[in-house]
Amino acid sequence: MALITGSSRGLGAGIALALAEAGARVAVHGSHAVPEATCERLRQIGASPLALVGDVSDAAVCTRLVDEVIGHFGTIDILVNNAGTIRRAPAAEHSDEDWQSVLDTNLSSVFRLSRRAGKQMLAQGSGKIINIASLLSFQGGITVPSYAAAKGGVAQLTKALANEWAAKGINVNAIAPGYFATDNTQALRDNPERSRQIMERIPAGRWGMPEDLGGAAVFLASSASNYVNGHVLVVDGGWLSR
After folding, report:
1. Is 197 inside a domain boundary?
2. Which stretches within the chain are classed as H helix?
3. Domain total in the chain
4. Segment 111-160, tens digit of pLDDT
5. Domain that includes residue 178, residue range
């Protein structure tokens, strides 16, 4: 039983599909509307998804989402903290509102969802938590100070939770995607100069696609990763190798 937040499209939808194809029962989530497109893709492969809605920047919503999964499936075995947002502005012009919005959605929700799911996983003695970090967990980025701060925090939170829960049957790890073709990178891909600079640095010679993340998610959600704890798995086409 898996909950994948932010799975209406992009990376979250790709992860939901990969987990379902691997045999997991999945709950998919949209911030403001039922993720119908993802649900339809899942039904096409024979899955029966649970569809959830709610803004994860709200602490009460984080608790409710996990409770709804437990109420429907009886438990929660896998949590993928994928929901996220990004606000672009030079640091000197980055508003308090943008800063707080990104931190609430990209970092605080990861803790709150993990805390609630972790209680259930501790009670059952097993579970897998997969946080979606970023290349900006390692690098500073440009004009995205709130996003870089949040994703740096995600990497450290992953390690902190792993330290507490690894001996109790819960694996907490993260995936750090590189430059993927999603809504969050649309502005970069629409900028000819920036897009060219990015492509020139990626050894794989292309932007990542959501399906490129599926294998990493399935590995971290499966028994194959039972001795992997507190790791941030980079899936970036070789970006960090340069």
Report:
1. no
2. 10-21, 36-44, 59-73, 96-103, 109-124, 145-165, 186-189, 192-201, 214-221
3. 1
4. 999 999 999 999 999 999 999 999 999 999 999 999 999 999 999 999 99
5. 2-182+209-235
